[in-house]
Amino acid sequence: MNNLTLYGWNESLFQLKQTSPYKHLFHGRVSTVNKTNYEVVTACGLLLCELSGNLLYGRPSFELPCTGDWIIYQPFDDNKGLIVDILPRKHTLYRRKAGAVSEKQAIATHIEKAFIVQSLDANFNAQRTERFMVQALEEDIEPVLILTKADLEFSNHQVEEALKHLTRQVTIFYTSILSPETILPLRKFVKVGESIVLVGSSGVGKSSLINALCERQILLTSEISSSSGKGRHTSTRREMVLMDGSGVLIDTPGVREFGLAADNPEALADMFDVTDFAKSCRYGDCSHVNEPGCAVVAAVNNGLLEEHIYRSYLKLRKEAWYFSKSEHEKRKRDKSFSRIAKDAQRNKRR
């Protein structure tokens, strides 16, 4: 038997369930997504579930269940069920689907915090942290930066300098699985019933960190490749783990590329400390590139805003703008096709 409140079930989710035509059926949370089925944590145990035809063929791929989704199911056999509805999502971490212009992919949903995991070796990259932060803040998910392998030699000054423009919006932990005292503050940071997704590149130690937080070997781990110096893909799927008496951790495969799927490009100004300067621009719709009277460009030229931060801001804003514009056009096309289909159906009835 499982206590679903430990997995995040609450009154708000109960109220959402009451709006479903299937509210009389059972509910559970997707813990793992396989190619053709879903592992679902329920009050009665772990079930292996499939999608109903209405869901499978009636929704775009990014709306199909992902790890963390709360679903309603109909049991039909021992340890098996049929997913008939998905409760509305809140706080979903998306990324742009690889190779696509405007399609997005749900990584995990109903998330309170995103642990952005980077190791203090050659993997460390402030720009990668920025990308994860932008996407987390887009969905009101609290970003937390976890710097692993703190037992290695590294320049604390260089790390702090690289991250100083982000520290206002992100909590930072320095950890090493070889030093349990560095794990304890992070373990206390996880609250009961809270859901946390871990994201980062291969080899940064996400699975090892989860094992350390849970104080037992739950997930497989592997060594760094001696030939390439890069981490092997230990995690091959998104997987939910329950900490004893605490919250839920969601492990994810390492990502080489994390494309933005942000709908509000202008929100990046706050994260990069551009907003205060932008208030003094001559034009209200200033793009902060080459307009006369741009206070942001002036701040860069006067050394008040570091150029590498300004360049990161422009790059991510352009990427987010491109995605949101493509997404908007895609929605317009979908609406247009929907109207045409409805008109054709009406004409056929006549």
UniProtKB/TrEMBL annotation:
Enzyme Commission no: 3.6.1.-
Cofactor(s), names only, from the UniProt record: Zn(2+)
GO CC term, one of those recorded: cytoplasm
Any GO BP: ribosomal small subunit biogenesis
Enzyme class: hydrolase
Family in the record: Belongs to the TRAFAC class YlqF/YawG GTPase family. RsgA subfamily.
Name assigned to this protein: Small ribosomal subunit biogenesis GTPase RsgA
Species per Swiss-Prot/TrEMBL record: Olivibacter domesticus
Gene: rsgA
